Amino acid sequence: PLTLYFAIQHYGSVPVTVAKMLERPLRIHVVGIEKELNFVDLFREVGYLLPKESIQIDMTWIVREDMLPQNSKGGKSLSLQLTSNVTLTIVAGTHG
User: Fold this and answer.
1) SS3 20
2) pLDDT(34) > 80
3) Across the chain, what does the average pLDDT equal?
4) Distance between CA 89 and CA 81 in Å, rounded?
5) Which of helix, strand or coil describes residue 53?
6) With 90 as the cut, is the pLDDT of residue 81 above it?
7) Across 47-53, average pLDDT
8) Radius of gyration of the chain from Cα atoms?
9) H or E, element range at 79
10) Element (H, E) at 3
Protein backbone atom coordinates (compact mmCIF):
# COMPACT_ATOMS: atom_id res chain seq x y z
CA PRO A 1 0.00 0.00 0.00
CA LEU A 2 2.77 2.46 0.75
CA THR A 3 4.37 1.81 -2.66
CA LEU A 4 1.07 2.66 -4.30
CA TYR A 5 0.77 5.81 -2.18
CA PHE A 6 4.35 6.79 -3.06
CA ALA A 7 3.67 6.29 -6.78
CA ILE A 8 0.54 8.45 -6.62
CA GLN A 9 2.35 11.21 -4.70
CA HIS A 10 5.54 11.29 -6.78
CA TYR A 11 4.49 10.21 -10.28
CA GLY A 12 0.75 10.79 -10.37
CA SER A 13 0.47 14.56 -10.50
CA VAL A 14 -0.67 14.62 -14.15
CA PRO A 15 -3.14 11.69 -13.88
CA VAL A 16 -4.55 13.11 -10.63
CA THR A 17 -4.96 16.57 -12.18
CA VAL A 18 -6.68 15.11 -15.27
CA ALA A 19 -9.00 12.99 -13.10
CA LYS A 20 -9.97 16.07 -11.09
CA MET A 21 -10.56 18.14 -14.23
CA LEU A 22 -12.78 15.46 -15.74
CA GLU A 23 -14.46 14.87 -12.37
CA ARG A 24 -13.81 11.16 -12.46
CA PRO A 25 -11.86 8.76 -10.26
CA LEU A 26 -8.20 7.97 -10.73
CA ARG A 27 -8.13 4.43 -12.16
CA ILE A 28 -5.27 2.15 -11.18
CA HIS A 29 -4.93 -1.33 -12.69
CA VAL A 30 -2.58 -3.82 -11.05
CA VAL A 31 -1.75 -7.15 -12.72
CA GLY A 32 -0.40 -10.24 -10.95
CA ILE A 33 -1.26 -9.20 -7.42
CA GLU A 34 -2.27 -12.64 -6.14
CA LYS A 35 0.02 -12.54 -3.10
CA GLU A 36 -1.51 -9.27 -1.93
CA LEU A 37 -5.01 -10.79 -1.84
CA ASN A 38 -4.30 -11.85 1.74
CA PHE A 39 -3.68 -8.22 2.69
CA VAL A 40 -6.60 -6.39 1.05
CA ASP A 41 -7.47 -4.56 4.27
CA LEU A 42 -4.01 -2.98 4.37
CA PHE A 43 -4.83 -1.12 1.16
CA ARG A 44 -7.30 1.00 3.14
CA GLU A 45 -4.18 2.83 4.20
CA VAL A 46 -4.05 4.50 0.77
CA GLY A 47 -7.47 6.03 1.42
CA TYR A 48 -6.46 7.18 4.88
CA LEU A 49 -3.24 8.80 3.64
CA LEU A 50 -4.88 10.72 0.80
CA PRO A 51 -7.28 13.50 1.74
CA LYS A 52 -10.86 12.42 1.06
CA GLU A 53 -11.62 15.60 -0.85
CA SER A 54 -8.46 15.15 -2.91
CA ILE A 55 -9.41 12.33 -5.28
CA GLN A 56 -11.50 9.19 -5.68
CA ILE A 57 -9.45 6.09 -6.51
CA ASP A 58 -10.73 3.03 -8.36
CA MET A 59 -8.25 0.18 -8.09
CA THR A 60 -8.64 -2.90 -10.26
CA TRP A 61 -6.62 -5.98 -9.43
CA ILE A 62 -6.36 -8.60 -12.17
CA VAL A 63 -5.69 -12.05 -10.72
CA ARG A 64 -5.72 -15.65 -11.88
CA GLU A 65 -9.21 -17.12 -11.90
CA ASP A 66 -8.32 -19.79 -9.34
CA MET A 67 -7.14 -17.06 -6.95
CA LEU A 68 -10.43 -15.12 -6.91
CA PRO A 69 -11.78 -14.92 -3.34
CA GLN A 70 -14.50 -17.41 -2.36
CA ASN A 71 -17.01 -14.67 -1.56
CA SER A 72 -17.20 -13.63 -5.23
CA LYS A 73 -20.15 -16.06 -5.42
CA GLY A 74 -19.10 -17.69 -8.67
CA GLY A 75 -18.73 -14.40 -10.52
CA LYS A 76 -15.65 -13.19 -12.33
CA SER A 77 -15.24 -10.09 -10.17
CA LEU A 78 -15.65 -8.77 -6.65
CA SER A 79 -16.01 -5.09 -5.68
CA LEU A 80 -15.12 -3.72 -2.25
CA GLN A 81 -15.45 -0.19 -0.86
CA LEU A 82 -12.25 0.07 1.21
CA THR A 83 -12.75 3.67 2.34
CA SER A 84 -15.01 6.51 1.29
CA ASN A 85 -12.53 7.45 -1.44
CA VAL A 86 -11.04 4.06 -2.44
CA THR A 87 -12.87 1.30 -4.30
CA LEU A 88 -11.22 -2.03 -5.10
CA THR A 89 -12.43 -4.40 -7.81
CA ILE A 90 -10.81 -7.82 -8.05
CA VAL A 91 -11.21 -9.33 -11.52
CA ALA A 92 -10.37 -12.82 -12.77
CA GLY A 93 -8.32 -12.60 -15.93
CA THR A 94 -5.15 -13.62 -17.66
CA HIS A 95 -1.93 -11.78 -18.01
CA GLY A 96 1.15 -12.80 -19.84
Assistant:
1) helix
2) yes
3) 85
4) 9
5) coil
6) yes
7) 80
8) 14
9) strand 77-83
10) helix 2-11
Q: Do residues 30 and 59 touch, judged by C-beta distance below 8 A?
A: yes
As a whole number of angstroms, the distance between CA 45 and CA 5 comes to 9
User: What's the CA gap between 9 and 90, in Å, rounded?
Assistant: 23
Given a cut of 60, is residue 95 above it in pLDDT? Answer: no
Confidence of residue 73 (pLDDT cuts 50, 70, 90): low
Question: Are the C-beta atoms of residues 39 and 70 closer than 8 Å to each other?
Answer: no
* Whether 47 contacts 84, CB under 8 Å: yes
d(CA 59, CA 80): 10
H/E element, 27: strand 26-31
